[in-house]
Structures are given as structure tokens and as C-alpha cells.
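Table 4 source record.
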Amino acid sequence: MGYQLDFGWLTDAIHLIAQGAAMTIFLIAVSAVAGIVLSVLGAAARRSRHAVLRRMIGAYVELIRNTPFLVQLFFIFFGLPSLGIRLDPVAAAILAMTLNMTAYTTEIVGAGLDAVPKGQKEAALSLGLRPRQVFFKIVLPQGLKVIFPALTSQIVIMMLESAVVSQIAVRELTYEADMLQARTFRAFETYFVVTLVYLGLSIGLRRLLVAGGNRMLAGGVT
């Protein structure tokens, strides 16, 4: 006897899936904003005159990029309490996602900064602008435009990786899917629906970021 699809449970489960999707969106919104801000500071620090600061940022980037995200998450949620630092699941998830994303986007932003011709910085300094003004008004906007597609992809990847935080009982989309399939015993249908939801979130997030980039960055992005 062949397997028969049954989506009858979906009507009663839509609100749970919507709640899980909302949590996923919240997690990526907070961690993306925090991660990008920190990555700009990190990329600038890696290009500063202070060797110790450069080494510290470099060590952080290498540590995060060469260890699994799941291990980082478990270290924050299960390891830090041994030092007296206890975080609730959502706070731990946001911290882990932010730290992970910052390491990757620091390299991405740094590549954008390096792509801006040095002559423009020198010209701006010769006009009397302060180094901080040159960085935020001249170098950073052009650098962000160059790396915006890569930055967008990294944000989408981080949103998809947020499924891992279900392991510490954060009630995001994957967590709700696990609970639903355990309750309905319809694993194929449950994960098929959730896959479509993730696909929709990814496409929607990418289009939203591109639209925002076209508004914020002169000349638009692709």
C-alpha cells in the first residue's frame, strides 16, 4: 500500500508555523543589524595602526570561522553558565548568531573597504575632512556597494542556519516543525511545508535587502 499525503492537520497548525516563522525573522533581524554594525567596526579595526587590535580581531575571525556554529551555540548556552553567565534561549541564540555573522561579514566588509581606491581617501583628506568623516562618508558607502551582494547572501545563509537554534528550545520555525511532526506523525508533509516556508522567507528577505540597498546606496545594487 502506497503512502498517501495528508495535509488535513495544516489548518490547525498554520498559527504555529506562523509563530515559528516570526521568531526566525526576529532572530535574523536583530543579529543581522548587530552583526553588520560590529563587522564595520571590526573591518576598520583590522586596518588600524594598532597591531594588538589587528591581531585580536584576526584571532576572533579565525576562531569563529573555523569552528561549527552548533558548537558556538552550545558553548554560549551550556558552557557559560559554568562561569555564572546564564542566558535565556532567545538571548543565547541572538548572541551566537551575531558573533558568527560578525566574523564572516568582517571579512566581507573588509574586502569592500580594500576595493575603494586609495586616491579617493587621499583626495578627501587633502580637502580637510577628518579621517572619521572620510571613512563614513567616502570609503564605507562605496565599499558597501561593492560587497552588497555578498553581504546579502551571508544574511540569508545566517537566517537558514538559525534552524540550529531549535536545539536549545528556541521556538523558531524548525522547532515548531519538529513539534508538529511528533504530534501528527506526518513528517514528510510537515517538513515539505516548512521547506516551502524557508524558501519563501529566503526569497522575500533577499528581495527586501536588494530593495533597501537600492534606496540607501547611490547607484543601486543588483
